[in-house]
Automatic annotation (TrEMBL):
It comes from Ideonella alba. Its main location: membrane. The keyword Nucleotidyltransferase does not apply. It is found in: Cell membrane. It comes from the Bacteria. It is a multi-pass membrane protein. This is Polysaccharide biosynthesis protein C-terminal domain-containing protein. The keyword Transmembrane applies. GO terms for cellular component: plasma membrane. The chain crosses the membrane at residues 12-33, 39-60, 86-107, 127-147, 159-178, 184-205, 226-245, 257-278, 308-331, 337-362, 374-393. Keywords: Cell membrane, Membrane, Transmembrane, Transmembrane helix.
């Protein structure tokens, strides 16, 4: 009974540190940085999501492969196949990430050449400092996937808790003492290095527990084929959720949109905490599916959905109330927003969290059906943003884009989950 208790404690501590560290960093950035610098910082964080698309779903693919191998038993003739897949993962993802990062840098350079009033840095300068952080985080993904698929999620969570503490400490010092966004970017990179070192240490320590054997090593072609579905889904989701950041930062200005950026990032920090409920069980879902225990898969999926719905509603309502009545305490009067903005973002928060549960369930069952529809939804939401921005203003256009994307994602992911459950009955 002792090990499950440790695993539960690690998950709950991870939820707490994920939410708390994200919220603390946002509040400190808002209070100790001018609105234009804080807006630039929020923009960098949101834009990084596009670089993380270079993962191409490979982290999820690797986790699923390892979990399936764990369920089927190790074959000594295939020893080291997952390690070879990890190396291919790194070469593919880092190449793609660098390419995407270069495109974003070119966009910032062409559209925002002048520096901001209160800092000597432009977005293009800061992006060059922040991009390596995303590349380092990509290196950590396959190590985390290997630990997770091998049943060592509680150790991966413990490493993440330590990493959150280090990252929060470094960025707090950079913001509070120096108020320098460049130092904040460098601090995130240093924290990413600490996280990688911790993950590698755990992998070496528990090497005997890692599932390194299984099906033959995936070729580059197989990896691309398996992950392009995830890429198009991730790109569609990122366009829906974060395209507003680089577009509005260069067209409207980071300072003017800092308040709504601030609130969106608060809900994003809370969403990361709720996502732990899904991520903690996705390897279990994949293992049960590989063992054809469909009844247990269905029960586990519904249990995760209930937890996500209850926790999302509770956190969303509490956050909205706090932001309505005490924005000045949290971040200063410059970050006050209307109550209806908070209400709409709370709805968006709940819909997206529930949609991610269904997507995780379907993907754990070896189905990647989302690519064209979600990608199309992302493109449509960006088109909506560009059309509405000059007509109703940046803030209202962002809300319309986010809500349209959340409703589409919720409907389509749950539709695919229902189809998967129906196949269980016929299978």
């Amino acid at each position: 009974m002792q090990v499950p208790n440790k695993r539960a404690l690690a998950s709950w501590l991870y939820i707490a540190t994920t939410g708390a560290s994200g919220l603390l960093l946002l509040v400190v950035a808002a209070r100790y940085l001018t609105p234009d610098v804080a807006g630039m910082w929020f923009t960098l964080q949101a834009t990084t999501s596009f670089v993380m698309l270079a993962e191409l779903g490979l982290g999820y693919t690797l986790m699923r492969e390892v979990a399936y191998s764990k369920a089927g038993g190790a074959d000594p003739r295939l020893r080291g196949t997952h390690s070879k897949t990890v190396l291919k993962f790194l070469s593919l993802s880092l190449t793609a990430a660098t390419f995407i990062g270069a495109i974003i840098w070119y966009y910032f350079t062409k559209n925002q050449s002048s520096t901001n009033a209160s800092t000597q840095y432009s977005l293009s300068h800061l992006w060059l400092l922040y991009l390596p952080t995303a590349l380092l985080n990509l290196i950590a993904i396959p190590i985390r996937s290997l630990l997770e698929g091998s049943g060592l999620l509680h150790l991966e969570r413990s490493s993440a808790i330590f990493s959150h503490f280090i990252q929060t400490l470094f960025i707090l010092l950079a913001a509070m003492i120096f108020g320098d966004p460049a130092l904040m970017c460098l601090s995130t990179g240093l924290a990413a290095l600490v996280n990688i070192a911790a993950l590698v240490g755990i992998a070496v320590w528990r090497k005997s527990s890692l599932v390194l054997s299984g099906r033959p090593s995936l070729s580059f072609r197989s990896l691309l084929s398996a992950s392009l579905d995830f890429f198009s889904v991730s790109l569609g989701a990122a366009l829906t959720k974060f395209a507003f950041a680089p577009l509005l930062a260069v067209n409207v200005g980071a300072a003017e949109l800092a308040p709504v950026f601030f609130v969106i990032k608060i809900f994003a920090a809370l969403a990361n905490a709720v996502a732990v409920l899904v991520n903690s069980e996705r390897a279990r879902l994949a293992t049960l599916y590989a063992e054809a225990r469909h009844v247990e898969v269905k029960e586990l999926y519904r249990r995760i959905m209930r937890k996500s719905l209850v926790s999302s509603a509770a956190l969303g309502i509490i956050a909205s109330i706090v932001l309505v009545y005490s924005p000045a305490i949290l971040a200063g009067k410059a970050y006050e927003v209307h109550w209806w903005v908070l209400a709409l973002l709370c709805i968006d928060f709940i819909l997206n969290n529930c949609a991610s549960v269904s997507a995780s369930f379907v993907n754990s069952c070896n189905r990647n059906p989302f690519k064209l529809s979600v990608f199309s939804s992302g493109l449509l939401s960006v088109g909506l943003l560009l059309v509405l921005m000059p007509a109703i203003g940046g803030e209202a256009a962002v809300l319309a884009q986010l809500l349209s994307g959340a409703m589409t994602s919720y409907w389509y992911n749950n539709y695919q989950a229902a189809k998967t459950l129906a196949e269980f009955k016929h299978g």
